[in-house]
Amino acid sequence: MAGLYIHIPFCKSRCIYCGFYSTVQLQLRQRYVDALCREMELHKRDGYRCVISTIYLGGGTPSQLTIPQLRQLFLYINKVYSLPSIQGGAGSGSEVTIEVNPDDVTPTYAKALSQLPVNRISMGVQTFDDQRLRFLHRRHTARQVPLAVRRLRDAGFRNISIDLMYGFPHETLDDWQRDVDAAIALDVEHISAYCLMIEEGTVLYEQMKAGHSGEPSPLYDEELERQMYELLIDRLTAAGYEHYEISNFARPGYRSRHNSSYWNDVPYIGLGAAAHSYDPSRKCRQWNVSDICQYIEAVERGEVPCDCEQLAPDTHYNDRITTALRTSDGLDLDTLSDRHRTHCLREARRFLDDGLLRLAGSHLVLTRRGLFVSDMVMSQLMLV
Predict the structure, then answer these.
(1) How far is CA 319 from the centre of its chain?
(2) Helices 222-238 and 173-185, packing angle to 10 deg
(3) What would the pLDDT profile of 83-115 be if each residue is shown by its tens digit?
(4) By 3-state DSSP, what share of the chain in percent is helix, strand and coil, each rounded to 5?
(5) Which of 21, 100, 223, 297 is most buried (most C-beta within 10 Å)?
(6) Domain over 312-384 is classified CATH 1.10.10.920
(7) Which pTM does this prediction carry?
(8) Topology of 2-263 in CATH?
(9) pLDDT in tens, 212-265
């Protein structure tokens, strides 16, 4: 079983914080969709066929594709890959997610999505404050969010996730609490929340580094970030959400199965410009070129424009540290080699003594205190 990720890089306009590969060349949409289908055919030509358990259309803004274009993609997915039955909610069939913008969710679009093999929606909300939305250069307004959720419910969707963001300039703890409470009021099945980061190469990075000796200025202080994260955990767990990964919360049975594959060493296939693939059986990871024109032109010539890396045992171990430890299930030490297990337990001892890590059977798990310093803990467990 494997996950299938399809990168849809199109956006009407770029948000200032986004570090993912995207483009505003909307005129290339059909040619790009044709190239995605061609890439699938190339995989089939090379004899690559596997059972797909999850599909995730991410971006960019996948809801910028038309319904016929989405229908074309699913037609080819069914031609090339083996796909279990599609079920909604927490069923045992395939989980099929598409990312959408709230302002793209018209009643007509929501109904049309429901007639495709899509059973999970991930919606970029970020904040319920219009001033902060304008700061991010988001297209939607706060009032469009509950409207979009209602339209999706009316169309039959019973598995909806939203993304939130905190750590805005001048944002207070009370501001953040209002956002969290507004998210809870939507009664969606899944909530992801991330601290606003300043990533090199983004518009925000260029804006924030001006006047600071070439380095971006911080947006907030660490203590306020900690308080916001504490509030997030407290409010969402009190509302019945399971805190199953550092930044992710779900109603029971509604964890993101696709994203969990990244954290649990499950193979996944990436299609499209800048998409990544991973095959643990071959200890190989590969990534497509991050340029839509180069990608399209190469695929049209019958080539998949990618680079590949063979993972050394120590690299694979480091990857497991930085993925599995993000989850509430933690890192299963029994999956490690004797050498890596010995190293991990030796380095973890001080954090176990300090109450930042705990052992749950064979699983090494971050405690709540450990979540706040997870990057530091993980770096100390890794091999350099």
Answers:
(1) 17
(2) 30
(3) 766 554 444 578 999 999 999 999 999 999 999
(4) 40, 20, 35
(5) 100
(6) yes
(7) 0.93
(8) pyruvate-formate lyase- activating enzyme (3.80.30)
(9) 445 555 556 789 999 999 999 999 999 999 999 999 999 999 999 999 999 999
